[in-house]
Amino acid sequence: MDLQVIINGILLGGLYGLAAVGFSLIWGVMNIVDLAQGAYLTLGAYITFWLFKLWGIDPFLTLPVSALILFGLGFLIESQIIKRVLRYGFVMLLVVTYGLNLLLQNAMLVAWSADYRSVTPAYSGAGLNIGGVNIPYIRLALFIAALLLVGLLTIFLNKTRVGNAIRATALNRLAANLVGIRTEFIYALTYSLAAAVVGMAGSLISMVYTVSPNLGGAFMTKIFVVTVLGGFGSLPGAVLGGLILGITEAFTASYIAPGLMNAVSFILLVVILIFRPQGLMGKQFYGA
Amino acid sequence: MAAVVKTGLKPIITLKNASTGYGIAQALWNVSLELYPREIVALIGSNGAGKTTVLRVLSGVLPLWNGEYRLNEEAVKGYTAPDLVHKGICHVPEGRQLFFGLSVEENLRMGAFALKKSRAEINKSLEWVYNFFPEIAKRRNQLAGTLSGGEQQMVAIGRGLMGNPTLLLIDELSLGLAPVIVDRIYETLQKIYQEQGITILIVEQDMELALSVASRAYVLENGSISVSGTSKELMDNDKIREAYLGV
Ligand SMILES: Nc1ncnc2c1ncn2[C@@H]1O[C@H](COP(=O)(O)OP(=O)(O)OP(=O)(O)O)[C@@H](O)[C@H]1O
Ligand SMILES: [Mg+2]
Q1: Taking the domains of chain A in order of start, what are their residue ranges?
Q2: Which DSSP string do the residues of B125-144 spell out, in sequence order?
Q3: Nearest C-alpha to atom 28 of ligand 1 is from which residue?
Q4: Is residue B24 part of a domain?
Q5: Is residue A168 within 8 angstroms of chain B, CB to CB?
């Protein structure tokens, strides 16, 4: 097997993992399949693009801006729209988040056109060569940034008071309410946090993909596969799922046919679902 | 029959002509009850009578449509469940509702969430709870979802106690448990009640059991309180004996 292919897959997989974390969190905590995540990702990518294009701000430094703007947007959308639809159940939420996605995507199309844009900082060409394997610095940096962000989020969820409240709410909303957790606020917070994280994923992705209003749509299927592979609600699971998808894709593209990438990913998904329906790292009782 | 009022004591809880329901379906009609410091009171009734609904009102999960709810003589209005936990009302819900994916100890710790206590203080409360229920102390690191029914009920009550309640609401403690376990848990509750001087409201369908534990009781029928009195009075009430005890 070609080491280069595996390295490419792993580096890309880290980004997939980060992109899926928000989706996974919203699914695990709120039991919502949030189809608007794609639009949030695209928005994050555009924020980085414009800050880079207009003011020459280094794309990595735009991460906090993406996070902040998307956190705010997420909070607004949860408290004004999602919250009101929650009691109508799963299917209605699918419809609403699908609609939100369309709305945001079209707004971006109107505002910024369908042109393909790219973010190309000065260092984007440089790379490392170890024994014939080529590792572009930027891909390595993106990979490390993605893992760092997932790591921070994991620590937040497991070690802080608010993080505990989010986990408890995920497991049993009524009981969480009865021990004094303001679960309405936890829902808003979870949704905003997830939007901020996928926005940052978009910012990172803009450095290696061309940016257009469709960017998030292309990632949505990957996010879905990664989440189900890893086990929804599990952050380490999202990273593992991301890595597996990245490697599978790189492998399919090099050895089978690039056009079959999605088909092979879905076959993998089905196989995992048959043998381990809770996903690779889905925990007992979570998402039950 | 009027409830027995302990003279000289002010009620901690007063419901007056309380009505409420779900959506448009009314579940309670003009329910009035009072709970005093340091007593165990039972709420009795058959399936669907509205017992759980009363507890939901008291713990703030369900707002009133009409009537009054007072806590320490102060109107409870616009309060949510978290607000009332802060005020010392802990609800051990029907079906236990544990955090199945968390360990026994994590479940108990969550019970103290509202109090913002220091870690040392929480550890002290933990030991205090384990002291009453050594069965679950042995299983502190086990996932709550893998416990037996009796152990789950002990964790549920323990979680309620961790909130340092002045009023503990317990919904159908005995449901699905063997009589020995039920006796064992009620004995422990009696101990806790004596030691802490808290008020406990228990919901049971089994009238004999409820009256043996509580000093007073209210009987709910179709969303209204039909009878109330001391346990002895209810035991001696022929109509009640006929309807609920079959003798
Ligand atoms: N979430 C709900 N939505 C709609 N109606 C409800 C809901 N919960 C309870 N009810 C209705 O309210 C009435 C009282 O129910 P409640 O659960 O308070 O009874 P209960 O006395 O606790 O019964 P059980 O002994 O079976 O637990 C019933 O008619 C029930 O159908
Ligand atoms: Mg009930």
Answers
A1: 12-214
A2: HHHHHHHH-HHHHTTTTSBG
A3: B48
A4: no
A5: yes
Nearest CA in chain A to B169: A178
B225-241 burial code (b ≥16 CB/10 A, e <16): bebbbbbebbbebeebe
- The answer to whether residue B190 is domain-embedded is yes
Task: Kindly state the average pLDDT of the residues B10-28.
Answer: 94
Region label for B45, one of left (φ > 0), alpha (ψ between -120 and 50) or beta (otherwise):
left
Where do we find the tokens 């088909």? A263
Q: What is d(CA A50, CA B102) in angstroms, rounded to the nearest whole number? A: 44
Q: Looking at B7-16, B107-116, B238-247, which range is the least confident one?
A: B238-247
User: What is the distance in angstroms between the Cα of A65 and the nearest Cα belonging to chain B?
Assistant: 32
Atom of ligand 1 at shortest distance to CA of B220?
21
Residue count (chain A): 288
Burial code (b: 16+ CB inside 10 Å, e: under 16) for A225-241 equals bbbbbbbbbbbebbbbb
Count of the separate structural domains present in chain B: 1
User: Which residues span the domain enclosing B87?
Assistant: 38-60+80-245
- Minimal Cβ distance to B110: which of A174, A179, A288: A179
Give the pLDDT band of residue B1 (cuts 50, 70, 90): very low
If you average pLDDT over residues A132-149, what whole number do you get? 93
| Predicted confidence (pLDDT) per residue in B187-241, tens digit | 999 999 999 889 999 999 888 899 999 999 999 999 999 999 999 998 888 887 7
CATH code at B232?
A: 3.40.50.300
Cβ-Cβ pairs closer than 8 A, A with B, add up to 70
By CB atoms closer than 10 A (0-12, 13-18, 19+), residue A284 is exposed
| Contact criterion met (CB < 8 Å) for A182 and B80 | yes
pLDDT tens for B125-135 read 999 999 999 99
Asked if the structure places residue B215 within a domain, the reply is: yes
Asked if residue B169 belongs to a domain, the reply is yes
How far, in Å, is the centroid of ligand 1 from the Cα of B47? Answer: 8
Q: Ligand 1: which residues within 6 Å by Cβ?
A: B 22, 25, 27, 45, 47-53, 94, 205
